[in-house]
Design brief:
Helix content: 25-40%
Order of helices and strands: EHEHEHEHEHEHEHEEHHEHEHEHEHHH
Shape: globular
Largest sheet: 7 strands, parallel
Strand order of the largest sheet: 3-2-1-4-5-6-7
Number of helices: 15
Distance between the termini: 11 Å
Length: about 350
């Protein structure tokens, strides 16, 4: 088979790679189709060359559609909705694979225009989407991004190589870009956690979008502390960080689901630096959008309302990892799905059989 992966944003790649690997093992041809208007071409050219996978750049969605019609692959994977499905469906079948299992309504609404199949993660998500689109094809397989964690292919972060202490517990701070808690953390916050390794993995957009330059200034200051490592823009995958960290700090992000599937504790930041259109008299916009999103994480772990609450919360959770253990198990079943390391195998078998 020939299988193409529509890669609107480069952070889709960790979700695609385990499937790509399994396809190549089975003798199929794979190509990533990447968008120049969304990504830094120079940075990611080196990435694709390092992983030795065929790829091609397109300028926009229309050009991508023209490529698919020309190449006539057996399958095209999409991480989001696509405007030219009717044209693609004349020559290929399509599979939708969400690039994250986040809380936003777009997670479900991207299936408004049906693809041949959408691969789903957890039981509750499958149930919900079938109610919305009862005539479409949905197959629960799990979350392919996490396969390397559960089949023991992922080795994690080499702390010694980063001049960190492997004998210390390790925190992972993985803030999203908007609305984010990042700018609410003090310039010297790693110093307050000197007895821990501090791993910081920002969202790709923090590095690539002009409006987040203040976030980048914070990252530069945090990177100066001996016990901290701030991942640079060319560090793509969060998966090694998930493997190594003992506890996760984040906001409303699919990263929370990913981490609890490893039965490790999370701390949810309920404080944010809001853009002007969410502040003051416009705060209702934030509550309308984000308040509904964040309620999904109510029982996933400890919530904090300010940075000052972080240190006690970290200490308490690491001393009592049994807290929220039953909730972590439930969230994994409902949102992440099977964690047997064989998600990509199930997806590839479906493609081959159809």
């Amino acid at each position: 088979m020939k299988v193409l992966f529509d890669t609107v944003n480069v952070y889709y790649i960790p979700q695609y790679l385990p499937i790509c690997k399994k396809l190549l093992e089975n003798g199929h041809h794979v190509k990533f189709v990447c968008y120049k208007n969304k990504n830094n071409v120079d940075v990611f050219d080196s990435l694709f060359k390092s992983i030795e996978i065929d790829y091609q750049w397109v300028s926009n969605e229309q050009e991508a559609a023209q490529l698919y019609v020309k190449e006539k692959p057996h399958w095209v994977f999409f991480g989001n909705a696509f405007s030219y499905l009717d044209e693609v469906h004349k020559v290929s079948k399509t599979a939708q694979l969400g690039h994250g299992i986040g809380p936003k309504p777009s997670y479900y609404h991207k299936s408004k225009t049906p693809m041949t199949v959408r691969f789903m993660e957890g039981e509750l998500r499958l149930k919900n989407i079938k109610k919305l689109y009862p005539n479409d094809e949905f197959v629960q397989v799990g979350y392919s991004k996490l396969d390397p964690l559960f089949n023991n292919e992922e080795m994690g972060i080499d702390l010694v190589k980063l001049n960190l202490d492997p004998n210390k517990p390790t925190l992972l701070y993985a803030p999203t870009f908007n609305p984010s808690s990042l700018e609410c953390f003090p310039d010297d916050w790693p110093k307050h956690f000197s007895e821990y390794n501090v791993l910081i993995k920002p969202h790709t957009f923090t590095y690539t979008r002009e409006q987040y330059k203040k976030q980048r200034r914070k990252l530069a200051k945090w990177a100066t502390f001996d016990n901290a490592y701030v991942a640079s823009s060319d560090v793509l995958s969060l998966v090694p960080f998930l493997k190594t960290a003992d506890i996760l700090i984040s906001e409303a992000s699919s990263t929370l689901f990913e981490f609890v599937s490893l039965d490790k504790p999370v701390i949810v930041c309920d404080f944010f630096k809001l853009k002007w259109s969410y502040r003051g008299v416009f705060r209702y916009r934030f509550k309308k959008r984000f308040g509904k999103d964040n309620v999904l994480y109510r029982e996933i772990g400890t919530h904090i309302k300010s940075f000052n609450e972080l240190k006690p919360a970290v200490n308490e959770q690491l001393n009592h990892p049994e807290h929220y253990q039953s909730e972590r198990k439930r969230y994994t079943i409902e949102h992440v799905g099977p964690t047997d390391g064989n998600v990509s195998k199930r997806i590839v078998e479906y493609l081959e059989n159809n």
